[in-house]
Amino acid sequence: MVDFDQSVLSPARHLENVAIDVALIAAAFVAESVGKASAAATKSTPTDVVTTTDIASERLIRAELLIRCPGSTIVGEELDDEVGHNEIGWIIDPIDGTVNFLYDLPVVSVSIAATIDGEVVAGAVADIIRGEVFSATNGEGARRDGLAIAASTTTALDQSLVGTGFAYDGERRGRQAQTLLDVLPACRDIRCMGSAALNLCWVGCGRLDAYFENDIKLYDYAAGALIAAEGGAMVQLPDLAMAAAAANDLTLASTPAIFDQLSALVS
Questions:
Q1: Using one digit for the tens of pLDDT, what is the confidence trace for 7-19?
Q2: Of the candidates 134, 172, 174, 259, which lies 20 to 30 Å from 250 by C-alpha distance?
């Protein structure tokens, strides 16, 4: 458990440490089932799967967070929202990259973001396979395993590696494929790796020069977007009031020099 010394850490930095602590516990738990996962149900479409490990991981994360921060509000992917009685909140994705997890592919993460009065102020994303933990505090920078990270210094889109992903709905995927026809000739290459949280962290540390995707949810991007921004990337997030109608639901993060050009292609 993270110890909190008010004289040393800001409240948000303390919450970052709590997020790291719990993300590591959950990542170790999920890692025990790597290579053994099976689909338990589907959600929005037949391709949108959930495993028993997703649900068990979220229950574990909720329990650990409430031990450390009693009275918190918790919003997660798999279980009903839990309304607390103080200003602290958590946004959790117990397994980001569930399809990868199901197929035993090595891009799977746990994402935990912390809020104060509804604003995301800290977060952590644990890479279950590589063992890395990305984290950030609003205004205090981003880190990988405790060491500062920074977005790439790429200045040309045609020299940029761009990550993306696809919606679960087939019709929406078709429209997203059309967007790729504009982006692919304009960049160095495209990668589709199946974890929004890790894609955003990789922009924050310079492994990707950019990442964009439509139709991802708050729990997918809350922690990773903060990490990307604190690493020096420019970040655009969905308008939550419009996203439910599949309008203005783009998440985009990139090194600053290519942001406007890429945004014009994908918006």
A1: 578 999 999 999 9
A2: 134
